[in-house]
Amino acid sequence: MKKIVVFSNMYPSKQHPTFGLFVKNQVDLLQSAGQAVDVIAIDNPDKGKLTALKKYMSWFLRSCIYMLKNRKQLALTHAHYAFPTGVLSLVGKKMLGIPYVVTVHGGDIDKMAAKNVRIRNFTRKILQQGEAVIVVGEKLKNDVILRFGVPESKVHILSMGVNTTIFKPAAKKEVREELNLSIEEKVILFVGNVIKAKGLLELVEAFEMVKSTTPNAALYLVGSQKDTAFVEELQSFIQERKVEGIHFKSAVGQADLARWMSAADIVALPSHHEGFGLVALEAMATGTKVVATDVGGLSYLLSDGAGILVEPKNTVSLAEGLKKALDPTMLSINEVAVQQRVTANSFDSILQALLSIYHKAGKI
Question: Per the database record, which ranges form the Glycosyltransferase subfamily 4-like N-terminal domain (predicted)?
């Protein structure tokens, strides 16, 4: 069996266990199915011009040497993110004839390609010359086809998948005891990087409105706090408004994250943009209600009554959605739609679809 190599500019390490964890999960899934997979990735999220230059130069050099040494054993390369990662796969195809697949996650299209004409043109070339382009949501599929000229026949919608052996319903009382949470609290949970684009300023303001009618509400923000400037801005915003009941928690592993989701009354995702919204899917798999903005993949995941969709960057709409989710007399979640989304994006379903794409692209 020929092997594949996965390139990614995000991958977890012992020091940064959640950095690009979704890529590692997919690699583990492939390896568990017997597919030979090597990984060459950046596992250091540290920023700064000099740091970035060193780590990207080292990564590109290691990747090129790897392809030169292993070109006869490789069926294909798989790049996560069109730019800059896709440049490696493009070089491998041009110089060594190695076919490739590229996964578009959202930021590489919405933000990176918009930086300048050069990056946009590189992105277009990478997407057009790949054997297959995987996108994690319907909106991204339309963008790839309409904005970057990729034939529809080459574009596949495929999320990173949810591990339903980890993310599954658990008794709320038991997990709250494990996490030292009061059973009386109405727990609103946010999971993700603590950055402005996740809509956290709006969430704090909306939570303040919720507290006026639900005094026992509590908001837990679980995730990486590496954007220290924004964390300070957010904390100042909370202090200025004198909002009580907001708690910051560091990023946790998947097993602990599943417990947090099961313990919550609501998982809130007020993102300004979201390629797919894996956190929402994971919450749905635990049986917890989701309130999220009507953007990107969230629009699909929570459609048909699978959750509550609110207007992006609209504090009042977000507050109304949270209040509705907390009031059992006002909300009826479509459990059939929830189960359909979870099943369609389970690891088993994703694995079969991914292997099918690989077979067509690289004859593995």
Answer: 54-164
